[in-house]
């Protein structure tokens, strides 16, 4: 499993959007020099994930004021994510990583049902803040559905990092 130190270069990746388009991370970063908050979540079926994504959506103006763009990623099927995006009126990209290339490159835990039975196999929650120089300046990787940072926690963290970043 990949382990990062703060300041490490964020891995590039390609994933499919809920709309079926290709999202190329570095191409996106090269066109958009804001901070990027990558939110990994379990899937459309997860009520805790839906709450987190809705919380982020409700606070999108705060993240915009912090010059931060949200991108969400799940190992769930594109069709399920399209339903989630529409039902929740999410304005930020929702990406499908069905082949687990993105979660593997970021060291996100993958639940395969070995230790406990929980809705088959899926990626677990994680958050990464990437600065305009493509460096990882914050990370939170979970091994279960709870303990993920709220929108308010992320707001405080981003504000602090931006204030103190060298």
Automatic annotation (TrEMBL):
Keywords: Antioxidant, Disulfide bond, Oxidoreductase, Peroxidase, Redox-active center. Pfam families: AhpC-TSA. PROSITE patterns: THIOREDOXIN_2. InterPro entries: AhpC/TSA (IPR000866), Peroxiredoxin_AhpC-typ (IPR024706), Thioredoxin-like_sf (IPR036249), Thioredoxin_domain (IPR013766), Tpx_Peroxidase_subfamily (IPR050455). Residues 4-163 form the Thioredoxin domain. This is Peroxiredoxin family protein. It comes from Fictibacillus fluitans. The lineage of its organism: Bacteria, Bacillati, Bacillota, Bacilli, Bacillales.
């Amino acid at each position: 499993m990949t382990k990062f130190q703060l300041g490490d270069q964020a891995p590039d990746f390609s994933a499919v959007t809920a709309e079926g388009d290709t999202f190329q991370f570095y191409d996106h970063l090269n066109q958009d020099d804001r901070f990027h908050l990558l939110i990994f979540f379990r899937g459309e079926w997860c009520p805790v994930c839906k709450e987190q994504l809705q919380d982020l959506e409700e606070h999108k103006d705060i993240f915009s004021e912090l010059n931060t763009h949200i991108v969400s990623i799940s190992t769930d099927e594109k069709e399920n994510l399209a339903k989630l995006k529409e039902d929740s009126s999410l304005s930020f990209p929702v990406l499908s990583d069905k082949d687990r290339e993105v979660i593997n490159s970021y060291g996100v835990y993958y639940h395969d049902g070995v230790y406990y039975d929980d809705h088959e196999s899926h990626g677990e929650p994680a958050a990464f803040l990437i600065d305009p120089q493509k460096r990882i300046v914050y990370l939170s990787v979970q091994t279960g559905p709870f303990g993920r940072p709220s929108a308010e926690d992320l707001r405080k963290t981003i504000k602090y990092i931006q204030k103190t970043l060298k």
